[in-house]
Write a structure and sequence with these properties.
Length: 323
């Protein structure tokens, strides 16, 4: 998740990243297994805290359609600690596993690759889609957000190598991949990127191998229009058409929407829910799957008696049935 404080807290970490040995073998407990196909449209929510897992499962089970829950894997939490929770979640929802939230960057490629191998090796079969890149074009992911062009390009190249390495691991295990770009430019002259290299339209074609872009299953936008990246005027039909051009075989949608602060005005948060989930009914694009993946589900919609859960439930109950 893009947080304003993340740039300050994390920018001082790691001056450089090690290179990945692309031929490194998978862990022996990784078995290739065809991933479940998630029915579309996708009604997604994000869970970044599984401590209240039983209440989370209950709330998910009461939604009108089988949702897709995106689980944020905390790098300080062992894979084993997620196993039982994912077993429970998978009984009521499809699952997307977020390898590492952008908040936890900068990191190095060895750490990223090892974490991907660990998660895929232990949780293969319980995760339907692996989000191998979260807000990957955000400037706060690199050690030097304001560095010289040569420094920035070198660091972004290393980030692209992380994504390629994770892609290789997931695909070798029979999994499906998602790449989430931070929506930071409306292509109309308004943006919130630090450097032009961060522009969502050009970052993937500059730093991701063609094979990764061709084999990506879901290409998604993270969009935070309140305070984080305000003032944009998206033309979503054109933007998703452009995204489809970059990822020619991917389904497209929103991988994350919300507000950085739980105390953001209720009117703002309610409007985001009521605006973006219903796009599955209005977008005339066969590759658009919705998603949204409201960030603060665990905090705001559990238990299901909370107001925001009611808003979500009422909003999606009249929308397309997943098929």
């Amino acid at each position: 998740m893009n947080k304003t404080t993340a740039k300050t807290l994390l920018a001082s970490l790691l001056a450089s990243a090690a290179l990945y040995a692309g031929s490194a073998p998978l862990s022996p407990d990784v078995h290739a297994q065809a991933a479940t196909t998630i029915k579309a449209p996708i009604y997604g929510v994000t869970v970044d805290d599984i401590s209240n897992i039983n209440a989370i499962v209950t709330s998910l089970s009461k939604l009108p359609y089988r949702p897709t829950v995106r689980v944020v894997f905390d790098p300080d939490t062992s894979t084993a600690d997620y196993y039982a929770a994912l077993v429970k979640l998978h009984t009521v929802a499809y699952t997307m596993g977020e390898i590492m939230d952008s908040y936890y960057f900068p990191t190095d490629i060895n750490t990223y690759t090892a974490r991907t191998k660990e998660l895929v090796g232990k949780l293969n079969g319980l995760v339907d889609v692996w989000e191998i890149a979260n807000e990957i074009n955000g400037e706060w992911l690199r050690p030097n957000p304001n560095g010289s062009n040569s420094v920035v390009n070198a660091q972004e190249t290393q980030i692209g190598q992380m994504v390629a390495a994770a892609h290789q691991i997931v695909k070798a295990a029979g999994g499906k991949t998602a790449i989430t770009l931070y929506y930071n430019d409306d292509s109309k002259g308004t943006n919130c990127w630090e450097k032009p290299v961060d522009y969502w339209k050009t970052w993937p074609t500059t730093f991701l191998p063609l094979t990764v872009r061709q084999q990506t299953d879901y290409a998604l936008f993270s969009y935070y229009p309140y305070q984080d990246c305000p003032g944009l005027s998206p033309s979503w039909q054109a933007d998703f058409t452009a995204l489809e051009g970059i990822f020619p075989n991917a389904k497209v949608g929103f991988g994350e929407i919300g507000t950085s602060s739980l105390s953001a005005p209720a009117s703002v948060q309610t409007n985001l829910i009521k605006t973006y989930y219903p796009m599955v009914n209005t977008m005339k694009d066969s590759r658009f799957i919705g998603g949204v993946f409201w960030w603060n589900y665990a905090e705001q919609m559990v238990p299901y008696t909370k107001t925001y859960w009611g808003t979500l439930n009422q909003t999606i109950s009249t929308l397309k049935v997943p098929q």
